[in-house]
Each structure stands twice: as structure tokens, then as C-alpha cells.
Amino acid sequence: DGVVDSGEVESNNLDVKVAESELKTEEKGTEEASARESDSNILDVSSDYPREKHISILRDFADLEKLANIKEDEKKPCPLCSEEKYKACYSHKLYRHLQNFHWKVSVEFEGYRMCICYLPCHPVKPNLIGHQTFSKPGAHYHCIICSATIARRTDMISHINRHVNKGETESRFITAPISKSSLEVLKESATDVRVLPNYSTPQKTDSYFNPKMKLNRQLIFCALAALAEERNPIECLDAFGATGIMGLQWAKHLRSSVRVTINDCNDNSVAMIRENCLLNKMKVKLDTEEEGNGEAMGDGEDITVEVTKMDANVIMHLRSFDFIHLDPYGTSVNYLDSAFRNVRNLGIVSLTSTDISSLYAKAQHVALRHYGCNIVRTEYYKELAARIVIAAVTRAAARCNKGIEVLLAVALEHFVLVVVRVLRGPSPADDSAKKVRYLIHCQWCEERIFQKEGNMVEENPYQQLPCDCHGSMPGKTAVALGPLWSGALFNAGFLRRMYLEAVQYSLDETQSLLKTLVCEAECTKHSSIHTPYDESKQEECGVYIKTLNTSPECFLVHGKRKSDEVIRNSNKRQKSENSAEHPAFYYNIHRHSIKGMNMPKLNKFLNYLSEAGYRVSRTHFDPMGVRTNAPLAQFKTILMKYSTPTYTVGQAEDAEFLEDDRSGVAAAVFTKDYTPHYAAD
């Protein structure tokens, strides 16, 4: 019995030990689970990094020394290298190894250093030699965010940047929601918008905001404000809201004159637009339900902005608007048919195209694919881009039995902006479609002219060009570009109204551009014939050009007002003069300058062309461009006439003085050996 009792006691003791070990493991598991939960909670609330990180992720070099436990009289191994890679050594050698081999090539991220690691946690691909397989550990970095192992340092930097762009800054992809206080708030035209990190790169963020497009937004606002003077209220749509900055500016400044709808197909963008509406104390309307606690502004009127989440084509098919703005990332041709389907009569469609690589003839095959146009790089490539976009707009409007009137076309460094008014009916559609033609461009002298109307094939299309390059040069000298819009690019009356709106809302950057556009739209002609009404001087971009004065005072003759018939005839004459379209395209004065000659100042050259009887103005497309109806041959003749020769250093020493011919013939240079004819007398 004693033996049995002892056996039973031993078995009982074993059972107790097993039970105690199981309890300990269970308690340990629960403690670890609770620790993980607490860690995850900490990660959700704060931005601290995980406590259990790899030993290669350190803050200071002192931490790396502490990890190595360097002692002067003892050999210590490297804590980040395997024994095969680096054997134990004394302190001075180990210090240099840690400094040069691990710390200097580390990747820094918000106070932490991810040092290079040679431990066997990232084995390289095994090499097969004979019947033996060798696999050795490779150099790598440990990601502080997702614990991934990356072999190359440049790849590690890109890997970290991708995490930051996605908002992933916590361990194991446990991402804390970005607090509103951490987001940057930008202000433009008295409108505040909250933007996400990396907001200026469209490939890396949902809510794209480009500060360089401020001028574009101001031009569109002025166009909408000018339309709001015609009808009230108007329904306007920002089809691609992103941060909602454009629609918020419309609603904040125009108030009850507009009913703003901001649309976007991305969930994050829609959420950001709603937050920005509340930030600017506006009410948000979603599916006939108003959200938010927007306070009344101004005269006690609530500003309500409707925010929708749809595809841009869908919302333009379902609803009608007076003003539609399209600003997709890239080309907007995919949305033109939907935009013109339900837009109201005499409404406005504006579109911003940012695919400048294709429009500016850097990717000609893309322009052919998107716009169906054949183009080459020319001196007037920016105006060519604007006419390409308008041609696509015209064809899309004509498919919906609508015509267009171009109000504004701007092509700058980053975008091409086109604003058109919609004219319903088949007759305006036919008239607009007839203005889409091909352009004949000479590749030798860069002379250009639109093809004549008609379907008959000409035997020699080179005869349409004013130049004679085809007869004097071998081979084919001209190319057919297009189809392009051949009509006017500006409406002077509408631009003046836009300028008044820019002055009213203190848009200083836009005022200077609108002044240039008004002058370019009028392209004033110098009149040498005395008309029944007086002439006055108008300043056009720094150049004073005589224009016709139509003020009521000019109709007073010896204290009496002219008869109604004379006034009507004068108005008709003035209307016909102003209704003439501005000349198509422009010439760059540097492109056609004569080698060895100093060309005149641009403003003086404009006066010379105007005195010769041609219409002339500067252009916003090119700071050194001249828009004129003068042929290229006459343009070069006048440029040659008023250019002065450039002299070398030796000739400049012999020349005593340079006398300008005030009559505009040429400058005469007198040297020591030359006696003028009037001096001999």
C-alpha cells in the first residue's frame, strides 16, 4: 500500500504540475493578448511607434553602442551581423564598424534610424552549386511601419514614402485616422480648405489641390460672376471637386446668385468637401437632407452647397445646369458629350485641359488619339492647342444640335482654359461646325493660312499660302494641321465684364491678364482716314494706339447734337469695325529677327506696324509675340527696316556716333574717314 500510495502521490503531483503549467501558459497568453490589445489601442490614439521593434531600428548612435555592449578589454561581436559576416573584435574596431557600416547608411524617418542588418532574417535566393545548396543572409533594412525587409536603401526610402502618402504611419498597417488638427489649412480668395498630405501630387492623393492653378480658378470665377449678372439665380456645377475650393469660392462670394453643386466620384474627396464646407460655415446638402450646423452669414442668408458622389458623366446626363466646369486630370474630351447634353440655352461650359504634353505637340500621337488632330511643333503652338480644344468642343456640341460662341481661350504653362457659350438649335450648330477647318502650315518660313471653305479638291493647295517657299525650295514644304477652330478666340464685351468683376472682388493677378486679353480681342487698327467722329488714344499693353471715340460728347458740333441719322450711321460703322474678328495666330519677333541686326523694342515695333495700317496687339500666348493681320513678308520687311546693324568690337571703336533716323528709315553710322554730304557744304 505504501508503494501504491507513493505512486498515487507522485501521479497527483504530476497532474498538479501539468495543471499549474497549463494555467501559467493560459495566463501568459491572456497577458500577451491584453498587451497586444493595449498596444493597438495606443497606436489608434497616439502616433507613437510600436514598442517591440527590430533591434536595427534605433534613435541615436549611443543606443547602437549600448546594444553592442562595447568594452575596452573584451572582444564583442556585432549585434547586427552574423558570426560568419563579422567576427568578434575589440572595441575600437567594433566602433568603426558600427559607425561606417551600419549608422552612415541608415534610413531616417521621424527621429528613428533604420540601420542595415546582416542577420539571417532576410535570406537571399539560394545558389545551386553541384549537389549543394548555399543560402546566406543578405543585407536588408527593416521597415518601421510594416516590418517588411527591403534589400536596397533607395527601395527602402521609396517604401517609406509610399506609406506616408497613404497615411500609414503605424505598425503592421494599423492606421490611426488623421486628426483634423494635423491637416494643413490653405487659404485662397478668403476661402479656407483643409488638404491632405502631399496634396499637390495627383497620383498620390485623392483630394488634389494645385496652388499654381489659382489664376485658372480666378478666371473661371470671373466668368461665372459675369454670367450671374445676366440671370439670377443660376445652377452651376463643379464636376471634379477634389477639395471643393472652386465651388466654395463661388458660393462664398456670389451667395444667393448661384446654386452650387460640387461633385466627385471618390469617397475621400466627398468627405473632404463636406469638411471644407463646414470649415467655411456653409450647410451641406446631400440627397435633400441638410447636414451640419452652418451659421448664417452676411444678411442672414444661409449658404447651402450640394455635394454629390457620382460619375461626372452621370450627373450631367441626369440634371440641367447653367454653368458647368470640367477640370479632370488630363484631357476632358471624355466628358464633352455629357456636358452639352443638358446644358441650358445661353449657358456656359468651361473646361481646363492639363494634358499639355499632347496639346503642345510633345506627344503628337496622343493628340491624334484624343482629339483627332494632326499637329506639329510651331512657334504658335499655344494658340494651336487652344484651337484644338475648341474644335473638339464644337464637334461635341454639334452632335447635340448646339452651337458655341467662344468667350475666352487661355493657354499658359500648366493648362489650357476654354470658356464657351452654348447656343441651342441646328442653325448655330451648323455655323459653328463650318468654322472647323484645316490649317496649311509652311515648315520653312512658318507662314500659315486656313483652307478655304468648300469640298472641292484644289489642284495645288500650296497656292493658298502667301509665301513662295514651294517654288524656291525642293520637295514638299507645307503640312496640313487640324482640324482646328478657325473663328475668334475672345469676346471683347464679355472680357470687359470679367475685368469689372475682377476689380470688384480685388483679383489683382487676374486683372493684368484680362487687360491683355481685352487688347488682344480688339487688336486695334490705326486709322489714317478722318472719320466724322474724333479719335482718342487707348493704352494697349503699354502702347498708345489711336482708336475711335464713341462718347456722347464727340457727337456735338458747334453746341448742337448731330442728327439721329448721322449717329445711326456712325454706330453702324463703329459696330462693323468692332465686330471684325481678331487676326488668327501671331508671330514671334525673336523667331523672325535678322542675324547681325538689333531689332527694335517690341512696343516701338507695334507702333511701326500700326502706322503701316495693320491691326496689331500683343498676345498672352507669347510675351514676345505680335498678333497682326500683316503677312509674314511685310512683317519681316518692317522688322528689317527698323533694325540696326550689330557691330564687332573693332568696328565699334572706329564708330564715333550713331544717329537715329527719326523718320524711321534706318540708322546711319559715321566713322572718322567718312564725311557726310551736308558737312562738305
UniProtKB/TrEMBL annotation:
Residues 143-163 form the C2H2-type domain. One of its GO terms (biological process) is tRNA N2-guanine methylation. SUPFAM superfamilies: S-adenosyl-L-methionine-dependent methyltransferases. GO terms for molecular function: tRNA (guanine) methyltransferase activity; tRNA binding; zinc ion binding. It is found in: Nucleus, Nucleolus. Its main location: nucleus. Residues 1-43 are annotated as: Disordered. Pfam families: TRM (PF02005). Keywords: Isopeptide bond, Metal-binding, Methyltransferase, Nucleus, Phosphoprotein, RNA-binding, S-adenosyl-L-methionine, Transferase, tRNA processing, tRNA-binding, Ubl conjugation, Zinc, Zinc-finger. Residues 17-39 have a biased composition (Basic and acidic residues). It catalyses: guanosine(27) in tRNA(Tyr) + 2 S-adenosyl-L-methionine = N(2)-dimethylguanosine(27) in tRNA(Tyr) + 2 S-adenosyl-L-homocysteine + 2 H(+). GO terms for cellular component: nucleolus. Belongs to the class I-like SAM-binding methyltransferase superfamily. Trm1 family. This is tRNA (guanine(27)-N(2))-dimethyltransferase. It comes from Trogon melanurus.
